[in-house]
Give the backbone structure.
Amino acid sequence: MRSIRLENVSKSFGDECVLDGINLTMPSGKFFALLGPSGCGKTTILRLIAGLEKSDSGRIFLGDEDITKQPVFRRKINTVFQNYALFPHLTVFENVAYGLRIKNVKELEIYDRVLAQLKSTRLLGCQKKMPSMLSGGQKQRVALARALVGKPEVILFDEPLAALDVKLKERVLVELMELQYELKTTFVYVTHDQAEALTIADKMAIINFDGSIAQIGTPEEIYEFPVSTFVADFVGSTNILEGILHKRNEADFFIDVEAVGVVDLHVEKLKNWIIPGGAVYASIRPEKIEISKTKLSEFSCCFPGVVESTSYAGRFTQYQVNIANGQVVSVFEQNEEHFPKETINDDDQVFLHFQKDNVVLLER
Ligand SMILES: Nc1ncnc2c1ncn2[C@@H]1O[C@H](COP(=O)(O)OP(=O)(O)OP(=O)(O)O)[C@@H](O)[C@H]1O
Ligand SMILES: [Mg+2]
């Protein structure tokens, strides 16, 4: 299996510049996710890799091979589209066989390979059905079988689960991860669902609204160490506090959040752009905040606040808390403890606590 590499790739439609010189490597044999808001250029990136669209400049590589000018049918790359793009007038068997037919594979081999593929994608009883007779999940599996049967080196997925319900989606995601692990085919998976991307990806790229790359990393790196407020807010949810950075001494910095208090910082998180006296953001995830009616001594930061609303969401309870600068801070509290917890209601005076390790410093 080989990697996919985009080198300085640009693409415009008319006078709209969608991609402006992007560089991106999707590692070989891994599950790579492209995550970004609607309209940022995700589908365009996939279509360029597949050869369905031509870049204005830059080059695309499959491993060391320059495929920029290679025609679609020559590329060892298949795509699973959001709407599955099945041929409505062909049976399930013929849909899956199509790619082999156009490559002039012998009839007997087609038969064996298609049946084996239908079996492994749990579609055996369906081979004579027309696409219109299938459920959403089955259509999705036919599209997958069609992409897999030619044994491509890379499979591109363009939001393939968008039409499935939550439960089925969870199951198919696990199946896809197992399949990728088994085949070691390079998977490139486009989604705008951040939870989906975090679950499946070995590595992911976050794309900005303007089509530029905001961050590349493992799901953990991206969630725990976002490099900008856009990434912090787009992947998961977070609280962003504005403040001024100050220095106590060489190894000790803190952020002064006006009218609220002080946020201590872990010195290893300091970056080279940091200037004491400058305006910065601190990002704190809602699940890293501990809420209680009394002050707890074991935390490095503590702010008072008033509960604006509480909502029970099964696994966790979400609190919206007004702090002294008028900002509303979101807190997620796990509902897994066995002992009865302190009851917190609307309008209660509370304290929000967090550790400095969980504060991410971001540029303002
Ligand atoms: N064939 C085309 N002609 C003109 N403009 C296009 C074409 N394809 C895409 N665009 C424009 O390029 C931009 C990026 O589109 P793209 O489909 O790549 O976004 P996306 O990230 O896949 O969005 P979504 O999450 O909604 O699918 C959009 O502004 C879109 O209007
Ligand atoms: Mg798209």
Summary: DSSP finds eight helices and 20 strands in the chain. The longest strand covers residues 301-312.
